[in-house]
Amino acid sequence: MYVAVKGGERAIENAHRLLAHERRGDQNVAEVSLAQISEQLSLGVDRVMTEGSLYDRELAALAIKQARGDMIEAIFLLRAFRATLPRFGATEPVDTGRMTVRRRISSTFKDIPGGQILGPTFDYTHRLLDPQLAGVSTPEAPATAEPSAATMPRVTDILGRDGLIESSPQADADLPVGDLTRDPLSFPAGRDLRLQNLARADEGFLLALGYSSQRGYGRNHPFAGEIRLGEVEVEFMAEDVGFAVPLGAITLTECQMVNQFKGSATEAPCFTRGYGLAFGQSERKTMSMALVDRALRARELGEEIMAPAQDEEFVMSHSDNVQATGFVEHLKLPHYVDFQSELGLLRKLRKEFSDNAAEISPPLQEAAE
Questions:
Q1: Predicted structure pTM score
Q2: What percent of the chain has pLDDT over 90?
């Protein structure tokens, strides 16, 4: 047994060295830098920061490099590092209404206060490979790249003035905000915990759930009320000076979905809301998040729960890609004892089946004769 353990340790050490060798790749090819990953693979960095729950572009780029581009492994690495950091307190709620906007679109109104800003997007590009990107290229400078500092009212406020959309659900200011990173998940969960869970959730999982809700597996006919991308200032209440001080600005994507609601015996028909917020430019994530957020409000709005996207426990218990990865990938680890136990049980059951079949066969054969 001791020899087997030692042999396993040497195999694992060799596997780690081989992993480092494979990560580096061909030594004749220049090694990719963290700055290159951060600047040129920015959407991947944004996803790792969002689902890793840590806003640090350099660390996210390092995680992607160390994980050889495996995004879920990179998210795992970033979360593990985050768990080692001290916590000094909580920042003030960010005000996305004061966002310095780089992109802002609405599919509900053509003309909105402040105007629509297409910004950097794949929405209108041809899905054709660009051979020029295979070499060194310098793209043409945009007509304007300056973000708008003008305060832009939310599109949902236009509907709110006429009472056509529900008021934004308000949390009780006296109740503490839940923290999934410190407290175990329990049900039923408040919307604060649900939104935290969705922000950290796997993008692909949320995308599939959001798509399912649009195909009829849930009461969800959405319109993108507004999607905005830009920089928001983060403030921290400094008790020694008695007021909030700015810590800096972070890039966020916010999505507000407008959804149909037929009303009830006590509520007039109106539009309802779904909400998504994520680090960086993460439009697909925030849209999916908003769709699922609205679906999870079914019980709150008195709707019948009939679809997976409406099932709070199903969604929240299976959305975390780090937890899901660990549970799936642990199957690669040794299960020799468990399997031998199952194998022994299966052989015993098959022997009992054969013995019973042998006892039953002669009487049946005599009856047939």
A1: 0.86
A2: 44
